[in-house]
Amino acid sequence: MKQLAYDVVVIGGGPAGMAAALKANEKGASVAIIERNDELGGILNQCIHSGFGLSYFKQELTGPEYAELFIKQVAAAGIDVYLNTMVIDLSPDHQVKASNEEGMLVLSAGAIVLAMGCRERTRGAIKIPGSRPAGVLTAGLAQRYVNIENRKPGERIVILGSGDIGLIMARRLTLEGMQVLGVYELMPYANGLYRNIKNCLDDFGIPLHLSTTVTNIIGYPHLEAIEVAQVDENLAVIEETREVIACDTLLLSIGLIPENELSQKSGVSLNPRTNGPLVNQALETDQPGIFACGNVLHVHDLVDNVTLEAEQAGIAAADYVRQQKVGVSENRLAATAPSKIKTIIPLGPGVNVGYTVPAKLTSPSSKEVRILFRVRKPLEQAEVVIQSGATILYQGKPRAFKPSVMEEVVLSPAEINGLNGLKGQSGAEQAIIVSVREVKK
Asked: How much is the pTM?
């Protein structure tokens, strides 16, 4: 068994893991990346379409191009990378147990960055009735078949769910000569970005059926048809709308789930709304020195945003290690130093908001705080209101909101610190609530 020690260990070598590792390295930390695949880059390696990097690099890149820029930086920085290595255990005291072809590894870390990404929801998650034939697969798996393995998933394709991967695959399969019969979405609105609706469906004449879902899977051993039906405002099936569509492939683009089995092993608490860790503004979980970023924290719409968030986590992890190293000296001065006790202020969703990241703030704060959130439904005219009790910290201008778009509001240190010590009726620290309130036209 090989035992190693690093200041910061990053679990996951996708865009989040690489960005976090690079920033921790820039801060002077010794860094290792553990990646279970045989190459860095994560899901970007199979995303051969363009549209990446517009915000971060100010140029339009494919997924592999975006990944390659970071892979080169990781190599140039001399960061240790363990490929084909599976993490099997993570303890609260930052002991990482992993396995690869050389045997067992135990990495001791000053801080951990969780960057394991996410996985697709499958048929079992939504319990579609019917037989269990070949030909039912997730959109991401189909993307790998076509873009990496040069395999053809089928001839007549139906896509369930209007997530971005499904929309992108509708275009990709059409370009490769397959017939995409339609995209069916349970909700009365599309879940993907508008640009993907326009570029991947509208431009290719692929119909999008809203308030419609798959109610049965037909055929065995291979898929022969599916049954679809419209749903009402309560998402109940409208019986008279049932229709059978002959097809040989059903792609599922029905959402993503953060990969947090390791997080739970280390004792990290998860947000029931996102299935990602509960973090503060430094992206630190409730386990000291364990940070989270990217799609393992919450599912993002753009990889550029993943990168920016991960850089913040990498800096925070390196700062944590540095503070731990000088902690002994600081403790010697504690008797004469002013109190540095921080207050924990809960932060959470209010009206029309699904979740917030972070889920708590520490005060006093010396840095501004980025609050990210998504609305629960499309809103044509609404305003963001962030408040603690009767105190309004932020109120935005009325505009439209979509669930597919990650929203961001920045609070200044003064706004946060002004709440320090403010108590609610129960005597507990008053929570900060983020709401998006509809405004009458």
From this structure: 0.93
